[in-house]
Amino acid sequence: MRRHCSLKRVSVQLVDCRKTSGMVDSANSQLLSERSSSEEVNQHLYNEKKSISNDKLLIKYQHKDSGKKRYNCLDCGSRFITLNALKVHQRIHTGEKPCSCDQCGKQFADTGTLFQHQRIHTGEKPYACDQCGNRFARSGTLIKHQRIHTGEKPYRCLDCGSSFATSFALTRHHRIHTGEKPYGCDQCGKIFAQSGNLMAHKRIHNGEKPYGCGQCGKRFTQPSALASHQRIHTGEKPYGCGQCGKRFTQPSALASHQKIHTGEKPYGCDQCAKRFSYSRSLANHQRIHTGESSSGCK
Q1: Can you give the residue ranges of the C2H2-type domain (predicted)?
Q2: DSSP secondary structure string, the chain?
Q3: Quick one: pLDDT at residue 263?
Q4: Residue 187 lies in a domain
Q5: Total domains in the fold of the chain
Q6: 275, 228: one domain
Q7: Model confidence pLDDT, tens digit, residues 26-60
Q8: Domain CATH for 210
Q9: 105-129, pLDDT tens digit by residue?
Q10: pLDDT at 63
Q11: Hey, which of 40, 101, 140, 231 has its CA 20 to 30 A from 167?
Q12: 272 and 257 in one domain?
């Protein structure tokens, strides 16, 4: 900039001197020389800057194209292609949530998650299922939904081979094998493998029965209990015995019935070792030992 400003001053002086000086040609020659030199320098700097800018751009795209994950998280070892992606990831470890919803104030670690959340307020559901037309706020939810139509179950249990449509369902199932019960009741200390079971259990303490029958008004703590009850009104018996064809309103009733065919007697008396197919039969039998029944043990 100094050189440019200096040249302007020389130019003005030459215009003023034309009327009084005979050195115009010499001055003009000097000006043209300096101007030419300046232009060469400016062009060189411009080309150099453009080259550096292009090189940076090229490197940036080369990193993306090559898929090289050059940025490493020191906390967990995860690797990322861009520095920005690493910085966003690190908020998992730091707990930083700089993006907040202007509707409800809820905070998020990145703008993408914030935008997804805001669809709760706007009602926007941009992702549509091409099979049934159902719409979703998140692309991930659409992908999971589409597995209903495709039957795809990409998540497989290494212990028993069972397959599941979502990683969450696999994690929940895996607790059968590990015995893990991470959800505890703060009222009585009882623990559960699933959060839904804990929520249903808590209704024992608070007396909440949010599910009501439209026919008789009876209320229930769980939707499954309501569905079973409603079969009294509809007469529906969806559970059929494969041996004799007898049908039942509840799966537990079918399982109990099937013991007739299998001869299974899982309930044993700890007094005389007699075994029974049903828990109620065992309870009736045990009254003989306690003296509640006058009948002898046969």
Answers
A1: 71-98, 99-126, 127-154, 155-182, 183-210, 211-238, 239-266, 267-294
A2: -HHHHHHHHHHHHHHHHTTT-S-HHHHHHHHHHHHHHHHHHHHHHHHHHHHHHHHHHHHHHHHHHHT---EE-TTT--EESSHHHHHHHHHHHH----EE-TTT--EESSHHHHHHHHHHHH----EE-TTT--EESSHHHHHHHHHHHH----EE-TTT--EESSHHHHHHHHHHHH----EE-TTT--EESSHHHHHHHHHHHH----EE-TTT--EESSHHHHHHHHHHHH----EE-TTT--EESSHHHHHHHHHHHH----EE-TTT--EESSHHHHHHHHHHHHTS--SPP-
A3: 87
A4: yes
A5: 3
A6: no
A7: 544 554 454 444 455 445 444 544 444 444 444 44
A8: 3.30.160.60
A9: 999 999 988 998 888 899 899 999 9
A10: 45
A11: 101
A12: no
Domain holding 292, by residue range, is 267-298
Structural domain contains residue 253: yes
- pLDDT at position 259, please? 85
Is there a domain that residue 58 lies in? Answer: no
For residues 189 and 207, membership in a common domain is answered with: yes
Same domain, 256 and 280: no
